[in-house]
């Protein structure tokens, strides 16, 4: 957890068998230490109308440091995945490749890429991997004999606006 806080499970046991409350009560609290966890639980519950009732009806018998919650585990897993994509995947992918674009999309950073699309000979949709705003009607592709006309690129594929299915001048 952030700010040096840990999650604790605090178990209290009933001290008076004649009391009709539960035999044990379990509370979860975020605190910096075991002592802080016990203090927080007591302050919240040892009062008239509180879960423990008047002071002395329950006593703390166990305090345990809890593991990460499901949400925290998921966030930690996503952070590890993001670090892996940034440190291992992106450096190994060629810029302007479909894999590069997918990695940026996974990181939520593909917003600055062109949205031009085309369909290859296999029927697969391919997306331009160049930056949004690259469009230039006078742009001539790097191969010999290429005609001007706003060319797009995705890996080994290159096409011009007349073959795209969307406006090339907008970002994702």
In spatial order, strands of the major sheet run 2-1-3
Overall pLDDT confidence: 78
| Subunit arrangement of the protein | single chain
The helix tally amounts to 3
Tell me the total number of β-strands. Answer: 7
What is the CA-based Rg, rounded?
A: 30 Å
Number of domains: 2
pLDDT under 50 segments (min length 5)?
166-172
Biggest sheet statistics: 3 strands, antiparallel
Which geometry do the CA atoms define? rod-shaped
End-to-end span in angstroms? 34 Å
Helical proportion? 10-25%
- Class from secondary-structure proportions: alpha+beta
Elements, N to C (H/E): EEHEHHEEEE
Strand fraction equals 15-25%
